[in-house]
Write the structure tokens for this entry.
Amino acid sequence: MDRKLDALLFQLLQNMTIAVSGEKLARDLQVSHSTLVRWIEKLRAAKVEIRGELFTGYRLTRVPDVLLPQLIRPRLRTKTLGRTLYHFYSVDSTNAFALRLLAHGRNVPDGTVVLAESQTAGRGRLGRSWHSELESGLYLSMVLKPVISPSLAPLFTLGCAVALHHAVQRVTRLEPNIKWPNDLLVGGRKVAGILAEIQAEVDRIHYLVLGAGLNVNHTVFPEDIRERATSLRLVSGHPHSRLEILIDFLEQLEALLERFQTAGPGAIVSEWTRHSSFAEGRHVEVVDGFRTVEGTTRGLNPFGALRVETGTGRVEELYSGEVRRWN
Ligand code: BTN
């Protein structure tokens, strides 16, 4: 369904300055007029402004900020990441959709990307939800099938945070801070989070679904997260192109992961360290599922684990978890 809506929207976009007759649209898309009317309504529900003009037809009244695969494909200079694209106007969760595809044994090539304009049940880390308002954020999941040991999987989420950092910095000129392990903060508030879901054997990863959520153009947040969350728009005072950030992010991430496969994790570890105020000398309290570690951060080890020196002088190496308190 969403692919058909994409095709209709693309037709309208190509004819922005004129109204296109319903007859022509229906003919080009090979559907009946009543189906066309239904699709127009669905696009309108996704905030696409379409004027229906008596006698002449349909016309877009502003360029919609929709992540159309037809707009992404010609610009994306990656080899695998994003070569297969799924795009939804609304989906429960892009991670959940990607996992369903994989579970049903469908052919899901390495680098498949699932994008959504909005999510009805966006998933966050540690069982939380992710606020996924229509047209405001980037909500995407990437299916990766790296030939590496599962113990190296955390490096993928660190790499994802680095690529997101670079894309945000390039497109918006803002300078996000990476909070361990993979949140992006701007002005101390969260603008992005990453959720990795993995299917593996002891020594082999079957697949990794890396989900990223970035608050781009939100102007308001629900009460319960208002104090902790922000968007790039709220910080900079003007909206930003989700399409530009997305393309830059996918290109950066692919380059970083290629370097990882050929030269090891050095680049991810050093780039992460360069852009995180949490890497060194920060007093933190980290919860890693079953225990709490308190101490001072002492950088990442070569495999991406956070080194925390506790009060006794012992250094703990943490591969996952959450920084609950910090100064
Ligand atoms: C976090 O809690 O910080 C991680 C949030 C990850 C949210 C993204 S949005 C796209 C993808 N699909 C989901 O359901 N979650 C991730």
Remarks:
- Residues 93-95, 119, 122-125, 128, 130, 139-141, 183, 193-195, 211-213 surround biotin (CB under 6 Å).
